[in-house]
Structure formats: structure tokens, C-alpha cells
Amino acid sequence: MRAFPYTIVGLITLTAFPHARAGDDPRDAVFALEQRRIEVIERVSPACVCILDELQNGGGSGVVIDEEGYGLTNFHVVAGMMGSRKGLAGLNDGKLYTLEVLGIDVTGDVAMFRLTGKDRFAFAELGDSDAVRVGDEAIAIGNPFTLASDYHPTVTLGIVSGLHRYQGESNTLVYTDCIQTDASINPGNSGGPLFDRDGKVIGINGRISAEMHKYARGRFNVGLGYAISINQIKRFIPHLRAGLLGRHGTLDATVTDDADRVVFDNMYEDGPAWNAGIRVGDGLLRFGGEDIRSANHFASLLGTYPERWPVPITFESRGRVKHQVVRLESIMPQMNRPYETPPKTNALAVKETLHGFAEAVLGAKFPETPRVWSWWAVRIAGDKTTVFTITDEPGGKLERFESAEDGTERRIEVEDGKVALIEGGKRYLADKDESLLITAMQTLRRQVLVGAMDMIPSGARHLGGDALTETDHDGRITRTRLLETIRWPMSDEVELHVGFELDTGLPARVVVRDAPTDRAVEIELDDYREAGGIVWPHRMRVVTSSGRFDEGIGRLDIEW
Amino acid sequence: MHSRGGLIVCLTLVAAWVEIAAASPVRDEAFEIARMRQTLFHEAVDRVVPCVVRIDTIGGAQPRVAGEVAPPEEEEDDGSPPPDLTPFRDDLGSKFLVADGPTAGLIFDADGWILTSSFNFVREPAHITVHLTDGRDYVAELVARDRVRKLALLKIDATGLETPEWVPRAEIKVGQRTIALGRGFGGDTPAVTVGIVSALNRMAGNAIQTDAKLSPANYGGPLIDLRGRILGICVPMAQRPGELAGVEFYDAGIGFAVPFERVTEIVADLKEGISFDRGWLGVSINTRARNECQIRAVADPSPVRGLGIRRGDVIAQANGRELRNIQNLRQAIYMVPAGEVVQIIIRRDDLEYGYEVVLARNTELGALVNNEPPPIDPDKPFTVPKKLPWK
Amino acid sequence: MVGRRLARLISVACVALASSARAGGFDPAIEAVSERVVRLFGLKAGLSAGYGSGVLVSDDGLVVTVISLLLDAERLRVVTPDGTTYGADILARDREKQLALLRLKPLSQYDRRGRRVQGAAVGAGQFKYFEPGDSRALHPGDWVIAGGNPFKVAQGDERISTSVGVFSTRTELDARRKTREFPFRGEILIIDTVTSTPGSPGGALVNLDGAWVGLIGRLVVSNRTHTNLNYAVPVETVDAFVRSALDPDGSAQAAADVIAEPFHGIKLFELGYQKKLVYVDGVKRRSPARRAGVKKDDLIVSIGGKSVSDIVSFKEVMRRRSPGDKVKLVVIRDEEIKTMTIELEEAE
Question: Does domain C27-117 have CATH number 2.40.10.10?
């Protein structure tokens, strides 16, 4: 409504003054937009890739998403290169670069590659496909019919025709939650980017609707192209960068439309749905924060999540509405041959993640000496509440626990990896959870937060992506932090997982796991602010567990 | 007086506007710009319409073999289909019917020269007429064709015709709006389709590419910018020879237009009645040879016969492009008409020899022969650098 | 005064540029079309038998669509924009215009336990619908927005597919389906957004304001260009059909007769086998052609703006004309173009 008076003015000027002076001409607004589109295309075109196999055959497209030369395409574009993992990529500087295929997502038809051949590659920024609306301008860039003999890609313009489309026929190449566009997409555009009008990638173009019967035209654009939404791909990017096989998640349960409800009609015992307390006949109300409208809607949403991903679910069981966060199981994609992660790729991903972290926390330098750090904590175990603080003095080896209630001093001593608690002069071994917690705290401070990354033992492995999802009491998502996880062994028995936030490179989750007992302590780090020259978390949340994350023996909220 | 008129216009519009606005509330700046863009489409079309003619043809038939006549270069040794250019076959080219409906042309200069597409005359019509926007009709003469760039030049007996303004190629930008005008549906107004410039340097530099819907409805018509200036002449094109090549892309958002610079290079010849035809090396390629472009037989006479090139030789490069199969060869030379030069590198016994070959017309080629030509004079061929610059 | 306002418009435009306004300005039209186009599915022996689109033309569930195979199915399933499923009865068909009118009705379904679930009721004031707009006001280059369900991609309560293009031109339909002539006679709206896809026909075409200007037509191949046509039947033609179908006479049900060629008085002959030339063999005395100045041995170029490639194509044009119509004839006589206008008369 705010625009109302201006629109009238627009009409009048068009009608009554068709030949207004140049400076006053409302046509200028159109020409300004034209200019803007031209500039956006100029800016993003150098990041668009024409993909060929090693013999310079075939034709596909891709897009570079960072200056190191990492990029995205469709799996079906590089499927023929999986033997050598090598291909060629033409950029609009007219040159061919070497392309290496990294991780692939067979089900979702996405692959990541890395280009080599120059120091810095032009790249395109990733947008937010959840913010896209029908009617938005969409720009597709790619190499249809391998027309780009000079590797200058083809640019086509259209609008977003539909959202959340589901284009699945089998277990492979399932396009879920994809963006439908009428921008012309043709064979060879596969793997190329779909941009919004600001030049941010909102999807990877992958398939088109075309009639293939005898009288039909064949594989040419008829106004319906589909792009895999970039937000789905973002969840898989850490897997793909690390050279891992992107596996999709499942609830191990199926749903069906039943009159006006969506109900569970089949499930495996001990699957994620079962373990969350869902039974056949229960109604599915919400998944991943979205109200579920149909079985198809659920299938479309589910297909966007990787295995092990935490997803909030709201369901109705015997008249009661329940909220849970479930971790999905893995769908095994159909593969022609066993998939092996290239070790170099994974090692490089580890290095880059840690490098990004070091930069984020420390800038270029390490702090000179650790200062006094303390946390206060509240522990609720049964009906007993204990408030205590942990203080770490400069250069000191011991941490001191104090109970605020009775003033009893507790000390911790760590000897040979074993943790002892000294309380009121009595010394006893901490229980496993406490022990793990303290190990985690120490590791956090000494190795993770202080950034002594050169101390990381060998054997580190990049595990791909994960998420931290926060929900409110209605089970709605209030915040999602995308992570990439690195695992390394601390000893023969204990291993450490650190989840670094994708956006910032900062540690968001530290998990210490004791393999023989399968017990783990998980610390979530949040509210990073600068303190004393380094960026430091000002809020922590600790979950101890006995096997499953949500069944802790206690819970500590620790704040600095 | 003027201001009162303006006021009345205002009030009427406000009234009309309120009514429309009540029906649908979401009208924002973007909507207003869309409306403005629509006005610009109208203005651009209006500017160029006097220069767009309707061409009718009388008589003529489907080309004897729709698509292309199998040339010696494409003869197969083993009868297997040729390797695909892309993973996706385009088999439409051979089943496309050429219609006899009206087509479009653009007045090139005031003295009755009309530029259009050679596609419009593949039926070899007996008579051609031209209908001007002002209503005048003329019998037209088809002066010459460029079957490589898919252009044709007509002459009508008229003077003082209105001519359009062309955009210099350097000013054309990828992403700018395009409007294509056609006459394929008859009537007195052109059919309008819109798009953007998709790429600048296509088909060996002979065309710009647009995603405006191009089809037999507007081949021969102009592609214009938002200011009503000519960007190029719409033609069907693909990376292969053949009079119908490229028509399979119709309405698929893959369209080509020949820009001014390329038109002016050839228009003087066309006016002289000189046609451009596909150029031939006069070789047959062994499609069984793996990963190389090996010669199976050479036509005698042919451009390569006199150079001593013979069966078993490998064409390693053409115009700086490395060749691995017959498709590569076709892509390297499909835009070089007969009479123009192609640089090729021949490999024999691990030695490479460079040549500049003037391509011939199909009709100038003799039969394929396998006998030994005179040996290559080791002093005569020149060796060229492995990488030749090419456009 | 105006200058200042203009400045304001431009500044608003600049704000629009600076902000991340992504929309192309088609929101009102997309909203209008998305809320008024229904998806049609045919059911035969419980199996799917075709799909298409339709346009709501009344608030109590009248839907207009094109004739297609799906109308021959045992049952029709209609999904409205909010995802509700209805049944439908066919009220009328017009085989010449290739249009059909449906009325929605409740559709009972069975749930997975085999219990019958009553379908949604149909009543007055229930549906958003289109009033006919004005297709004659369309100017080549005007934005048009097409809405339908091509390839039935929209499932459940998903929105239909909308695409944007421009109005190309208005022309008389001259087309075929596979090898058979398409019976539709009259003007159509050519558009440059692709609608020649399964499922699109029966959808709506609207202008930038969201006003309904046409109904997406059936899949046909143009005889003039031999390409798949992207077109819409003008809303006036659709509206006339709806009105006559609701007329108690039921005149729309009457099958279209083959219209006889009106009297012009030209006898033709053809020359050539593949390249045919059509010449005037003779002109009847006191005939319209004689009065117009047609002479023996004139080479026919075009009739009524359509090129003449053989005698059949000449007769095809004439059959579509009525007595009293004036039709323009272009001939070549002595290497010169002659244009004549023949006023057709009643056939004897």
C-alpha cells in the first residue's frame, strides 16, 4: 500500500508525457535495472564452468563457490569421470583447467569438484533458497549443447515458476524441494547455477520436463526446468568437500495421506521414528519446522537432509502432541562400484577447516599467556542442586571446584589421563561422565580454544556436515547452526569430535567420546565475543549422556 | 489549457487505478517497472516495424532430404551411428518439415535490398513477394544466399525505403534485453518475442545468442534492443553444417542472430550475386579409428589431394583446435565457407605438417580415391606451432 | 510539480534497486492466476487417464477447459488451488471451438481403512473465479502470465506452475494435431512462453494486471511454421461459449457443420509435382471474382493473407469465410503484383 501514490505518478507520466526529458524519464528506472542485470551477469560469469571429460567430450556445467576453486555440479555430469576423478573445466577466460571430482551425492544428484591451475578463482556467492518466492527473477547460466566453444557460458532469464517441487521416480536422482523455473534450461545446462537477480546462487540446475515419445520434440526446453535448492546442497557441502559420499537421511518409516491427515503407516523397529516414540497410526504434524500438508510434502522435505542430521519432529500419538529431535538414519545409495574417499581430499578438508578456525579465533597470532578463566555452573541431579565455579589460574595445572552452598572445596587432579576429584580432603575417582567432561574441558581450553592445533595428533578425519538445531517448547526451530565435524583420537579409547560452525569457522560443539563405554560428553559453545585479543565463547551448554544424547545423567549450564 | 487537460487525465487515471488496485492489492515498484518495461517493448517495436517486411513464397517443396545430404566426410566404415556431439541426440533436424508460410526480412538499405534468412528459401520457391508495412507489395529477386551464416539477400524494385539503426557489436552486452520480430503468422503486425542476450561470440564468431523464442516464425526478422536498434538477423544455427541445422532449437531458448559487422563483411558479395556455400576438405574420415581423426579416403580432385595428403594420415588440428573425432572436425570448419582458408595440421609417422587449405564446394569434389598420391616434399610443408591462435 | 513527482518515482525505483526486491513485478498476476486455475485428472477403472487444467468462471464451481481425452474418462477429479478435491460433471462441449464446461460436485473418497469420507461440498460464493478481461486490448510485447499444470508437477496443495512471456500477435489458427486438421476456426493469441506441454491446455492466460485474457489451447502444430504453437483462445471466444452453454437451448452442444465454400467464381489449376503453382483456370461471368478483376492465368500468391501452396490450401481459406466477407487476393500477372478484394456471395 505504501507504493500507492508512486504508482499513480508512474501511470500519469507514461500516459501524459511520453517524451519526458532524459533525466526525468521513468524509462531510466528500467534502463538502470538493465544495467544492473548486465553487471550482475558480468560479475558471476567468471565463476561459471563448462565441464568436459578428459577427452574434451560431453557437456555439462558447474559453478565455482570459493576462491580455492571448489565448485558444484550435478553427479550425472561427472558420473563418467569417476574412474579417474579427473575432468576439464573451461572458464570464460577461454582457458581449460583441471577438474578433480571430490565428494558426490548420488541420490541428490550433486557433486563437488575442485579446479586447479590458478591461485584464485572467481566464485559465486550462495544465496538463501528458502527466501525465494514464485515470480522472482531467475538467471540460469551454463553450457547447453556445448555451444560455448570459447567457454563463455549461455545466460538465460526467467522467473521462478514453482517451489518445493518433488521430482523423484526412483531411489537415485531424487529431486526434492527443487525450484522450478521457466528460464530456458537445456541439455548441457546440467550442473550450472540458477541465480537470483542479485547474482547469488539459489540452486543447481539439474533436469527438465520434456516429452520423449515418438511425436515429441525430444530433449529441448519447454519452459520447465528444475534446480536443486541451494539450502539442501549447503547441508551436504561439508561432506562433499571432504570427499565423502553424501548419504541422505531416513526416518525408517513411511507416511501416507489419510483423509485430511498424514499418518505413519510403516516403520522399522529401532529406527529413528520408532526410537522417538512414534508408532504406526500416529499422525505426523510437523517435520523440520514445517507443518506437513501431504505425504508428498514430507517426502520432499525429508530428501533434503543428510544422514545423522538432527531434525525436529512433531507428532500426535494417542491424542497427545509430542516434540522430539530425531537423528536420521542413512539411506544407502545405489552405486555401481564401492565408493572410496580420496585420502588426500579428506586431509585437505581437515587442514582447511582448522586453518579457517585458527583465523577466526586468533586472527594471525596466538595469545601470549592464558589468563584466569572461570565458569560458573549449575548442576541439577535429581533433587540436588549444586552451584560451583571452575577456575583456571595462569600456568597452573589444577582446576578448583567450589560448591557455593557449603563452601566445600573440590579439586581436580589429572594424572595419566585419569581424573581424580578431591572433595573435603577426600579423594575419589570421578565417574565416567564427569571424567569425560573434565577431559573435554581441558581439551577445549588447551587444544581447541587456545588454538594449539599443531598439537593435534595425526589420524584426524573430516566427517562432513552436521547441525545444531534449537527448538522452542512447541518444537519449532528457533535457530540452526551448520557445522563441519573433525574427529581425532585422543588415546586408544577416547576420541574427540569438534564441530566448527560453517559461517564463522568457530567451534560450536565439542564431543568427547569414550569408545569402550560409548559414553560421551558434549559441549555446545555459543555467543562468541572478543576478549583479550581472541574470540571466545561466552555461553556454553553441556550435555552428558549414557549412549544417547538426550538422556544425560545431568546437565550443566556453564557461563563464563 | 494544457494543464487542465493533464489534470483530467490524472483524475481519470486515478479513478481507473483505484478500481484496479482494489481488485489486487500487491502493486509495488517492481510492478511499475514491469509496466514501464512493457511500454519500452512497444516503443522499440514501433520504431523498427516500418523496416520489417513480410515475405511470401510461392511454389517450392520440401528439400529432397530434410536435414543434410550425407557428405563424403560422414561416410561410415562400419555403419554405426556417428558419435554424439553431446550426450543427448538431436534427431529433430531430420524430421523437421519446412513450412511455406510467410516469413520476415529486414530492409538493409533504402534502395530495396532486403536482408533475410536463407532458411526461408530452402523449398526453392518459384516466386517471392515482399509486403511492406505501408501496404505496398513487390515481387522480389533472390540475389544471393550465405548458406553458412544462413543469410539471404533479396532485391525489390523500390527506393527511399526507411532503414533501421544497427547496434555496433562492441556495445552489445550479455544480459541486455532483446526483442525478436517475425512475420511467420501473417497479418500486418509482427509477432513479438522477448529475451536477453545469452552470449556474444557463438558459431565461430558469426552470431550472438539469445534466449528469446526464435523459430521459423521469425527467422529472417531482426533481433532488436530496448531502444529499437538492430542487434542482428535471426537465423537457425547449430555447430554442424546443414541448411536446417539449428531449427531443432526452435522456441527452446537457444537462438542466434548474425550481427552487423558480420553482415557488412559479406553483403557486398551478396549484392554481386555471390553465394556462400559450405566448404569441404574432400576427405572421408575413418570413424573406427579411436580418439583420432584418421583419413580413410581423399577425393580427387579436392583441396587436400594436391597437398599429398592420403589415406591413413591423421588430421591432428584444424584452425588451432585439436581433433579427436569427426565431430571435432565438423565443429572446427562448419563455419568456413568454400573459398576460405582453414589451417590444418596433418600427422603422419609421428611427424606433423601444417597446411593452409582453401576449402572447395561440394560440386567441385571428385570421387574418393585410395591410391597413393605423390609423396610429400619434405622441404615444402612448413611446421607450425602446436597451438595456433584461433577466433 | 510533475518534475518533482517524477524525481520521486525515480528515487523509489532506485530504492527498489538498492533493496533486495527480487520480484519481477508479476506478483499480482501470478496471485490472480494461481488462485483461479484448477487441476484436472481423469480416472478410468481407478487408474489415471490424462490430466489438464481448467479455469474457474463462477463462484459456485463452473470450470471452463479445453476438450481433451481426459474428458472421456469415467470420472473426473478436480483439485482446486487450496488442494481440495472435487468431482465434476461435463455440462457442455463445443467441438469446433474445442472447449468444454464443467461443474464441480462433491467427490466421496475412501480412507485407508476403507471408510467412506464425504467430499467437500460445493456451494455459491465458495470459489475465486475470473471475470472475462479484454484480449483485444493486448498489444504485441505486453507481458502475459500463463498458469496451468504442465507435466502435472504441482501435487497436493502445491501451487500450479506459472510462467511469464509476452503476447506475440493475434492470428487465425491454422493448425493440425498429428496428421489431422484441427477444427478450431477463429483468432487466437500467440504467446512466447511455452504452453505446448501436456497439462497446460485449459490453463489461464492473464495480463500484467492479472486480468483474464485467454485460455491456453490444445497442443497443435502450426501449418504456417510447422512448429508447436504456444497460444491461447481469446477470452471473448471462451466467454461466448460459456454463455451459450448456460443457455437452455444448449446450442453449444450442436456439432459444427462442415461449412461449404462461399461463392467466388474462380476455377483453379495446379502446375508442378512437388513445387506447385496455382493458376486461375477461368473466372465465372457475373461472379465476385470477375467483378474484382481476377483474370485467367493469374498466378495466385495469397488469399486472405495466407500463402497458397496448392488448390487445397486455397479452398481451406475460402471454407473459413462466410458470404458477405471481403477477402484479399494477391496474384502475379506479367511479373507484377496485383491485389484485389473479392466480396464473397452465398453458394448456389
Answer: yes
Q: The cell 519526458 sits on which residue?
A: A20
Helix/strand/coil for C242: helix
| H-helix or E-strand spanning residue C286 | none
Q: Which residue has the higher pLDDT, B108 or C317?
A: B108
**For chain C, which residues make up each domain, given as ranges?**
27-117, 135-235, 266-343
Where does the pLDDT of residue A472 fall: very low under 50, low under 70, confident under 90, or very high at 90 and above? confident
Helix (H, G, I), strand (E, B) or coil at A533: coil
A34-86 pLDDT, tens digit per residue, is 999 999 999 999 999 999 988 777 789 999 999 999 999 999 999 999 989 99
Per-range mean pLDDT, top range of A417-421, B141-145, C279-283: B141-145
- Interface subset of C 266-305, CB within 8 angstroms of B: 272, 274-278, 299-302, 305
Return phi, psi of residue C4, to 5°: -65, -40
Alpha-carbon gap, residue A104 to A112, rounded angstroms: 6
A533 Cβ under 8 Å from any chain B Cβ: no
Q: How far apart are CA A174 and CA A165, in angstroms?
A: 11
**A488 vs B390, more confident:** A488
Coil, strand or helix at B357 = strand
As a CATH number, domain C266-343 is 2.30.42.10
- Which residues are CB-contacts of A259 (< 8 A; sequence separation ≥ 6)? C109, C111, C117
CA distance C257 to chain B (A): 26
- ipTM of model over 0.85: no
Length of chain B as a residue count: 391
Q: Write the burial class of residue A400 (CB in 10 Å: 0-12 exposed, 13-18 middle, 19+ buried).
A: middle
Q: What is the DSSP letter of B82?
A: P
Phi, psi of C2 (to 5 degrees): -65, -40
List pLDDT tens digits, range B341-377: 899 999 988 888 888 888 888 888 888 877 766 555 5
Kindly state whether C340 is in contact with chain B, defined as any CB-CB distance less than 8 angstroms: no
Catalytic residue positions of A, numbered: 76, 109, 190
d(CA C334, CA A475): 87
Q: Is the pLDDT of residue B253 over 70?
A: yes
Q: Do A294 and C34 touch (CB under 8 A)?
A: no
Q: Which residue has the higher pLDDT, B61 or B71?
A: B61
- Average pLDDT in chain B: 80
Q: Percentage of residues in chain A with pLDDT exceeding 90? A: 42
Confidence of residue B10 (pLDDT cuts 50, 70, 90): very low
Phi-psi region of B148 (alpha: psi -120 to 50; beta: other; left: phi over 0): alpha
- The H helix count followed by the E strand count for chain B is 4, 19
Please report which helix (H) or strand (E) contains residue B292, including its range.
Answer: none
Q: Which helix (H) or strand (E) holds A557?
A: strand A555-559
> Chain C partners of A293 at a C-beta cutoff of 8 Å?
83, 156-157
SS3 C248: coil
The second-level CATH assignment, the architecture, of A129-234 is: Beta Barrel (2.40)
Homologous superfamily (CATH) for A249-330: PDZ domain (2.30.42.10)
**Topology of the domain covering A344-559:** outer membrane lipoprotein receptor (LolB), chain A (2.50.20)
Domains and CATH numbers, chain B: 31-63+98-276 (2.40.10.120), 283-369 (2.30.42.10)
pLDDT tier, A429 (very low <50, low <70, confident <90, very high otherwise): low
Q: Note whether C197 contacts A166, CB cutoff 8 Å.
A: no
Omega within 30 of 0 (cis) for the link into B301: yes
**Range(s) of chain A covered by CATH 2.40.10.10:** 45-116, 129-234
Distance CA A389, CA A527 (A): 19
| All three cell numbers of A267 | 516403520
* Better-scored residue on pLDDT, B59 or B7: B59
Contact A222 C9 (CB under 8 A): no
